[in-house]
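Incident log, support desk, overnight shift.

02:14 A customer reports that sequence design results differ from what the structure should imply. Their input is reproduced verbatim below. On-call engineer (initials T.W.) acknowledged and began investigating.
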């Protein structure tokens, strides 16, 4: 029996984390090609804070349920939602923007084309901690950069959510991975498959990258939001690809000669613009790796829905006393 009301974390206008309310909203009704999912667990991503604050402009209708990711169980499937049945374990990583309501609620409506089965035996917490970062990493490495086995990749911020996924996916695809991270995260990056880890606080970090990649870097992805394109392009091989996906307020000088005289390119992308077909391609790849137990992540803590605002605050103002890793929210 599906109830008519549910607990949800929502906003009535964009604003600070404190504007998040937790209370009752009607359970949404699925359309013919939609699925109603009972949420098992969600995760908080930086983009959720941008949508909530209004700094990332996207169509919202209020009250707006926050949150992008979920793992859950199908409780109702529309007649046109082929392939989904009651009781199926599923996941989604594209709610909470583009006119879609979010995932921080007991129930969420998901369009069938944005919903994927969770492979049997996969821990929902592990999965949800990887959905947004690993799909981002997949699109960055393979759609944007066209990464090939044997190429050298630099991952800036290799211990973060997206960075850790970039390290793993690049390594598993047969690339050589150089990651930058703080010293306390060096072993974690190695555990994920980084061949070389360089402390980002080392003033000679770029020289260390040059030593580690004397023939040049083929693909460079920085997740920290720091951009020094003059230094980065100086490290790249001919035909090297720089993917820019973080650092919305950063400025950088672009050395034109270093770009075009060596056939290099810079690609910007945001997963929020990805077509459902691109998301589905990434989802298939992630499901194969999840099913094979090939992906890892760190979970710092899991909060109840009532602490949704705290989850956002922890991303905006990290607490150094907490363990490293993702923040999950369990409705
Ligand atoms: N374009 C897209 O589609 C897309 C999708 C997802 C995320 N993003 C963006 O990607 C960024 C990363 O997201 P996330 O979830 O991975 O965040 P995160 O988990 O906070 O990771 C950021 C990492 O960067 C590291 N870092 C900080 N300063 C650094 C420096 N100077 N050099 C190298 N690394 C440094 C951090 O290390 P410390 O902990 O030691 O500070 C942390 O490990 C965010 O800006 C997010 O909005 C973009």
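02:41 Re-run completed on a clean worker. Output:
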């Amino acid at each position: 029996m599906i109830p008519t009301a549910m607990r949800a974390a929502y906003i009535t206008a964009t604003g600070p984390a404190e504007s998040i309310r937790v209370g009752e909203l009607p359970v949404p009704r699925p359309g013919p090609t939609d699925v109603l999912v009972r949420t098992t667990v969600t995760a908080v991503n930086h983009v959720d804070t941008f949508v909530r604050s209004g700094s990332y402009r996207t169509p919202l209708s209020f009250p707006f349920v926050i949150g992008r990711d979920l793992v859950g169980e199908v409780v109702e499937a529309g007649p046109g939602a082929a392939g989904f049945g009651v009781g199926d374990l599923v996941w989604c990583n594209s709610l909470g923007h583009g006119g879609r309501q979010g995932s921080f609620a007991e129930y969420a409506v998901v369009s069938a084309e944005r919903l994927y089965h969770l492979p049997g035996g996969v821990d929902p917490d592990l999965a949800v901690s990887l959905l947004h970062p690993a799909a981002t990493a997949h699109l960055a490495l393979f759609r944007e950069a066209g990464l090939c086995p044997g190429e050298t990749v630099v991952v800036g911020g290799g211990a973060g959510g997206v960075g850790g996924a970039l390290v793993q996916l690049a390594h598993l695809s047969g690339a050589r991975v150089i990651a930058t991270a703080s010293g306390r995260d060096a072993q974690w990056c190695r555990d994920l498959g980084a061949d070389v880890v360089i402390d980002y606080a080392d003033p000679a970090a770029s020289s260390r990258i040059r030593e580690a990649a004397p023939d040049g870097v083929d693909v460079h992805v920085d997740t920290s939001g720091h951009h020094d394109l003059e230094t980065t392009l100086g490290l790249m091989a001919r035909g090297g690809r720089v993917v820019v996906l973080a650092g919305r307020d950063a400025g950088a000088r672009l050395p034109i000669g270093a770009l075009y005289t060596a056939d290099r390119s810079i690609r910007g992308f945001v997963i929020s613009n990805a077509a459902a077909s691109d998301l589905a391609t990434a989802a298939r790849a992630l499901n194969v790796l999840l099913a094979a137990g090939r992906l890892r992540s760190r979970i710092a803590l899991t909060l109840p829905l009532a602490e949704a605002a705290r989850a956002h605050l922890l991303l905006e103002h990290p607490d150094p006393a907490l363990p490293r890793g993702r923040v999950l929210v369990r409705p």
